[in-house]
Amino acid sequence: MQRLLLDIHHAVEAAGGCLPPDEAVAWRQRYRARLDQGEGECPPPDETRRQGKRGRLKRSKARNLLERLRAFEDDVLRFMEVAIVPFTNNQSENDLRMTKVHQKISGCFRSMEGAKIFCRVRSYLSTCRKQGITATDALTWLFQGKQPLFMEKTLGQRAE
Question: Contact at 8 Å (CB) between 30 and 4?
Fold first, then answer.
């Protein structure tokens, strides 16, 4: 499955960010065939071994992944039909990680205003990092009352 998803990703890149509908259908059929192959290699748990009447039978990690890949097929493959959807969610996870770490360590934010300030600072630092500016430089400029060049361009365009 990993190899297939990477192959789809390369096909999307070669097509310029979005696959034509007929090609997307062909890749989707290959995706489903791979899921069917996984079904044979990792069958669902045997319901006859159920001891009680409540709850689901325990499934392996591989089985859980297989079921999620099948249930969320449209979400998994959205990157091949919608150009703005990235192949991975790594950037999203990186942007949210510090907020979750702060919640885990502190338990919560003391106020909504504090949460907004934290998110604003993290957003600024994340944007600067994406523009190739170190956090140290970004914070130094911030405390000096200066803006990075990319912000001046953006703010200038908004003002026009």
Answer: yes
What is each CA distance from 159 to 22, 123, 131, in whole angstroms?
44, 21, 21
- In total, the chain counts a number of residues equal to 160
Q: pTM score, two decimals?
A: 0.60
pLDDT tens string 13-60: 999 989 999 999 999 999 999 999 999 998 887 776 667 667 777 788
What string of DSSP letters covers 73-121? Answer: HHHHHGGGT-TTS-S--HHHHHHHHHHHHHHHHHSS-S-HHHHHHHHHH
Angle between helices 112-130 and 90-106 (to 10 degrees): 140
Residue 12 contacts residue 18 (beta carbons within 8 Å): yes
Q: Which amino acid is at 79?
A: F
Long-range CB contacts for residues 36-42, cutoff 8 Å, separation at least 24: 38/1, 38/62, 38/66, 38/69, 39/66, 42/66
CA distance 39 to 1: 12
Can you give the C-alpha Rg of the chain in angstroms? 23
pLDDT digits (tens, 9 = 90+) for 107-120: 777 788 887 888 88
